[in-house]
């Protein structure tokens, strides 16, 4: 599929020019642009985990939207909600055959190996509003969205390290979404490396409680840390809490996403539909798990049949949707699925909204 991008929308290695709205990537946040105080926990002022309710994973699942096309025809990898500006951002590995900042079109395999991503901007009904391209960033396992006035700042992995087939980020980037812009990992942007020596580094924003969640590999273990978002942006990388990823998660199934809501961490795993355990015939092997950030203990784990009639049905990505940004009780725990034929993948998002 051909894809043309105005050169005014390009940011190229070495700090080329971009759309006027992008400027120097807004490394300072406008005054008064923080999330509503009513949607944050006061406990974070003391760098503590907030008291919060948790989602009941045995609650039934409902579709936010089902089988919507994204800008590229590849599998969705992750998504994030800007609950204030009412936008969803979806990351996927760039499809083959596109020419962006390169002299010629690049194959899909080369895109995957380099860590090249497409981010599609959607409304809450799943309709496309725009797209952005990130070259050399990673695999898109997770991402976060932070509302700053009428803009959305994305938090993604970057500085991808490749094994020749795929790539994973080694640091965290923060930058504004600008429609049709292209960033490379050498473009000017805010970057963070909170854990020395960590690899496979990704991020998620807990807008409701003002937290940034970072998942990374260190010393052969996958770990997840919660940070105060404002402190993290100022360079304070002291975590509020850190837990090991439970061994029961992704022990025999691919890890597919994570998010948090207050003191609880939520994890998603599963393979594409058609790979079954003996007890999961006809419904796939998608599991959701809740972890208490204060103890690292698994407090609930549930098998999901959401979207069971989707073809292919690969679980991908998690996020929390607040239907009312000032009301924590309006929260929905969302998780995605890729479906459809290869070369024409579609995106679906389902949610659970029973808080206990």
Describe it for me?
With 356 residues, the protein is mostly beta strands. The protein has one domain: Tachylectin-2, Chain A. 3% of the residues lie in helices and 41% in strands. The protein contains two helices and 23 strands. The strands form six sheets. The chain has a five-stranded mixed sheet with strand order 2-3-4-5-11. A four-stranded antiparallel sheet has the order 1-23-22-21, with no helix packed on it. The termini are far apart. Residues 1-46 have low confidence and may be disordered. It comes from Micromonospora polyrhachis. Residues 75-350 form the P68 RBP/TagC-like beta-propeller domain. This is P68 RBP/TagC-like beta-propeller domain-containing protein. It holds the Pfam family Phage_RBD_prop.
Keywords, please?
356 residues; mainly beta; Tachylectin-2, Chain A; five-stranded mixed β-sheet; four-stranded antiparallel β-sheet; 2 helices; 23 strands; 41% strand; globular; disordered N terminus; P68_RBP_TagC-like_beta-prop; P68 RBP/TagC-like beta-propeller domain-containing protein; TAT_signal
Stated plainly, the CATH topology is called Tachylectin-2, Chain A
Number of domains: 1
What percent of residues are in strands?
35-45%
Q: Write down the CATH class.
A: Mainly Beta
Pfam families: Phage_RBD_prop (PF21311)
Protein name: P68 RBP/TagC-like beta-propeller domain-containing protein
InterPro entries: P68_RBP_TagC-like_beta-prop, TAT_signal
Describe, in short, the structure shown.
The protein has 356 residues and is mostly beta strands. The protein is built from two helices and 23 strands. It has helices at 108-114, 229-233; strands at residues 62-69, 76-82, 87-93, 117-122, 128-135, 144-148, 151-158, 161-162, 167-168, 171-176, 182-184, 190-192, 199-206, 211-218, 221-228, 241-244, 255-261, 264-269, 286-292, 298-304, 314-322, 331-339, 346-352.
């Amino acid at each position: 599929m051909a894809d043309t991008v105005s050169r005014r929308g390009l940011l190229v290695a070495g700090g080329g020019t971009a759309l006027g709205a992008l400027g120097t990537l807004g490394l300072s946040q406008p005054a008064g642009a923080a999330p509503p105080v009513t949607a944050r926990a006061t406990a974070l002022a003391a760098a503590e985990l907030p008291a919060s309710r948790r989602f009941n994973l045995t609650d039934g699942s409902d579709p936010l939207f089902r089988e919507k096309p994204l800008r590229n025809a590849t599998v969705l990898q992750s998504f994030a909600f800007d609950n204030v500006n009412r936008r969803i951002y979806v990351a996927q590995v760039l499809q083959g055959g596109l020419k962006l900042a390169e002299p010629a079109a690049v194959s899909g395999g080369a895109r995957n190996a380099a860590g090249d991503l497409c981010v599609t901007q959607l409304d809450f009904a799943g309709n496309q509003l725009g797209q952005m391209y990130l070259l050399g960033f990673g695999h898109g396992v997770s991402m976060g969205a932070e509302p700053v006035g009428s803009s959305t700042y994305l938090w993604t992995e970057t500085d991808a390290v490749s094994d020749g087939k795929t790539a994973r980020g080694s640091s965290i980037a923060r930058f504004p979404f600008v429609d049709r812009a292209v960033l490379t990992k050498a473009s000017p942007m805010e970057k963070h490396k909170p854990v020395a020596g960590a690899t496979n580094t990704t991020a998620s924003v807990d807008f409701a409680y003002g937290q940034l969640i970072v998942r990374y590999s260190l010393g052969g273990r996958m770990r997840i840390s919660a940070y105060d978002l404002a402190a993290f942006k100022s360079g304070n990388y002291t975590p509020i809490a850190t837990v090991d990823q439970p061994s029961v998660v992704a022990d025999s199934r691919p890890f597919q996403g994570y998010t948090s809501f207050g003191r609880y961490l939520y994890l998603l795993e599963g393979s594409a539909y058609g790979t079954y355990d003996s007890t999961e015939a006809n419904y796939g092997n998608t599991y959701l798990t809740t972890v208490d950030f204060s103890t690292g203990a698994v407090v609930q784990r549930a098998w999901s049949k959401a979207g069971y009639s989707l073809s292919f049905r690969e679980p991908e990505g998690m996020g929390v949707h607040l239907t009312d940004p000032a009301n924590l009780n309006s929260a929905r725990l969302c998780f995605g699925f890729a479906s459809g034929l290869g070369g024409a993948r579609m995106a679906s998002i389902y949610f659970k909204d029973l808080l206990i």
